[in-house]
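Notebook entry, structure prediction.
Reason for the run: the old model in the group folder had no record of what sequence produced it. Starting over properly, with the input documented here first.
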Amino acid sequence: MERLADRVILVWGFKRSLLAVFAGAFAVLALPPFGFFAAMFLSFTLLVWLIDGAAASPESSLVGRLWPAFTVGWLFGFGYFVAGLWWLAHALLVDSDEFAWALPLAILGLPACLAIFYGLATALARIFWSDGLGRIAALAAAFGLLEWLRSTILTGFPWNAVGYGMMPVPLMMQSAHVVGAMGVTALAVFVFSAPALAGTRQGALPGIALAVVLFGAHLGYGAYALYLAPRPQPLPEDKRPVVRLVQPDIDQAAKMDNDADRNAIFETHLKLSAAAPQNGGRKPDIIVWPETSIPFILTDNQDALTRIADTLDDNQILIAGAVRAEEMGPGTPVRYYNSIYVIDGRGQIIAASDKVHLVPFGEYLPFEDLLTEFGIQNVVEIPGGFSAAATRHLLALPGGLNLYPLICYEIIFPGEMTGDIKDANALLNITNDAWFGITPGPYQHFQQARVRAIETGLPLIRDANNGISALVNAHGEIIAGLDLGESGFIDATVDGLGNGFGTTFPHQTYFWLIEALLILIALISRAGFISGLN
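New structure, fully documented this time:
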């Protein structure tokens, strides 16, 4: 182990750069659809050793001394984000004639920008670097901080935060209920980096022991939450609402084709909604359609509302994604919103909520006045793009069920779980991952949605155009679902009573406490106050 560490520390030039990129790319095997979490042990061990060897001249300025560490982190991040996000380019191929030119930006440009966060993390860690276990504490704290910044700066994009590599299955997801995904991320980097101590000896015994304790606590809490913790008494089966998830698997190119038969798309959804229950079960009480499933402005189409009313029984509810148009007055452009409608059996819209957190370059164009001069436009063809709602509205359904609505990638943001969520019985996530085809993207999206259910202690109702659609309990376990690329529907009951812990943990507080403790360990180690840490 020491000989391998020495070789990595001393590697230089092109081989060093290639090894850093490889380490980042290899870590993606820990993410869906692979879930091989052990990959990150190798990746972060290599990263620690590469930072060990990231030396600069003592006469260099502060920036000069940190630049080698920044470069290592940036290359690691570039490999990680190229391997983990290449599938974003698939969205540009839906209308390749218009957007093929942007493929390099999606495959290489975005990862190059996101990798800056990891470069800053390794540079920051280098400031607190030492010979002992304090250096992996510094790296964990720095990654935790920069992943948190990545989730907030410029509207944020926390996709594939490192902590998700430590949460491939429900047993390993439960810690998110206590410390949140960001807390798991900081602790995961410490655990993943611990094997590096065996290669350099200093601080190996206490560092690896602490990592083993943390990993054991992670698994132990998961086992407790899933198998030992008391759960609320569920409602009788006949009292639970039956939810039907409709997954039509409409090709995205057809949805965007102005000449497409929009009525045929609409009828496909209606047909799946009206189908008899499978295996002689109860009729669904709630039917859910995916994001933008209604292919026209619903409020301008009374015939569509009539068809919905004809399809639904009097006591059934339809929840559907649609584009909502809002007239602002004469001479003022129409505003468009990515919305959710709740429609009753009489064809009346009884509740609605608009998307708050929009996708840049997908649903709106940042710096629109400037970029449009260069011919850059949104991927989604809406005049002027979508408008963002000021607030999120809880969807109150007949019968007392309150749903917290999250459209598409809103569910990847832990910070969106605020406000009325305390009054919600379940999370509702509708999405259209058909943009990304049969790629890792929809699997990654689904994993992050499951973690939100665990964090909030609420079950999840998730409906996607081409998958993955599922009912997920408050422990992240799949009750029923349809896989990626399947067409059809699934009926199942959802209890909506939470996970039974009886506590909403202050994730942000715990995250900053974890950060403070990691920094304290790094400072103590660097100062050499405790010899065993060095």
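Summary: The chain has two domains: 2-229+507-533, 241-493.
The old model has been moved to the deprecated folder.
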